[in-house]
Design a protein that fits this description.
Distance between the termini: 40 Å
Helix content: under 10%
Shape: globular
Number of strands: 11
Number of helices: 0
């Protein structure tokens, strides 16, 4: 059974930082493209970042230069380091394992709130 479990969300002030983690089980983690999506209130879910098994990354324009996605294949874990957070980054963040560059499995999400 595939499980993706996110952690690290919370309340942070504008300009602050958070690091999200996603622990994966039940998949051959090392060969999967992994990614983070987010869904803000009243908006559609959107891609934030992806990382291939070899470490190649891709980012949405809105987070490029502020967020960094990484993975540790030995720990079956993918991370999202978020810096210079803005109120518009407020959303539920979802970890996903992609197949053919489309989300195949989802975590339950972790809430990030950026507010003063």
């Amino acid at each position: 059974q595939v499980q993706l479990v996110e952690s690290g969300g919370g309340l942070v002030q504008p300009g602050g930082s958070l690091r999200l983690s996603c622990a994966a089980s039940g998949i051959i983690f090392s060969i999967n493209v992994m990614g983070w999506y987010r869904q803000a209130p009243g908006k559609e879910r959107e891609l934030v970042a992806t990382v291939t098994s070899g470490g190649t990354t891709n980012y949405a324009g809105s987070v490029k230069g502020r967020f960094t996605i990484s993975r540790d294949n030995a720990k079956n874990t993918v991370y999202l380091q978020m810096n210079i957070l803005k109120p518009e980054d407020t959303a539920v963040y979802y970890c996903t394992a992609l197949k053919n560059w489309r989300p195949d499995y989802w975590g339950k999400g972790t809430l990030v709130t950026v507010s003063s």
